[in-house]
Amino acid sequence: MSQVTVVNHPLVQHKLTRMRDKTTSTKTFRALMRETATLLCYEVTRDLPMDKVEIETPVAKASAYEIAGKKLVFAPILRAGLGMCEGMLDLVPSARVAHIGLYRDHETLEAIEYYFKAPEDISGRLTIVVDPMLATGHSAIAAISRLKHYGVTNLRFVCLLAAQAGVDALREAHPDVPIWTAAIDEKLNEHGYIVPGLGDAGDRTFGTR
Ligand SMILES: O=P(O)(O)OC[C@H]1O[C@H](OP(=O)(O)OP(=O)(O)O)[C@H](O)[C@@H]1O
Ligand SMILES: O=c1cc[nH]c(=O)[nH]1
Ligand SMILES: [Mg+2]
Asked: Residue 194 annotated as binding?
């Protein structure tokens, strides 16, 4: 069974608290989402394999390290994942991006796909699925299933906030996919929102409600 990593770095926790606060403006929320995603990206990529290369500095020849293999893919789940993806691209600007359009049906809470566009050669690349919220887990499970169907085998999932139910569901459906999150909240309410959570991440990022 894959690992679940809670990133409890003080900067991440401080920024998450500001995002949870309902008085935080859309502008600040969006900025915090981007900054927090950069910090989470640092953790998710901590154990990437490296190659030793020979280079020449202005002073001498040297053996040094660089990230091995093909460029990463970030796979944001629309819409809210876009805000996080910006912050991840700040740290890994050469990463490729696979967009996965999903929304939750308000009645059934099932994930409905409306868009999918991935790099043609994604199957050989480490793909990091990005979505701030892991609530029931339906969206993350559907996104990862779609990517696996497309041939992707090396996957990670990163979110800002999870509910324990979502973590359990995702681990059950995709036990090979490790998870990173800044916090795991207690429960979901009757509408499938994380409690205490931070509300609707898409609406708060884009100011739609
Ligand atoms: O774990 P789940 O129960 O599937 O819930 C999480 C999903 O809900 C939100 O998206 P939403 O459907 O609100 O779409 P949006 O980003 O377009 O607002 C969020 O960004 C996740 O994708
Ligand atoms: O609390 C939640 C649950 C799902 N999606 C959100 O944006 N927030
Ligand atoms: Mg939403």
From this structure: yes
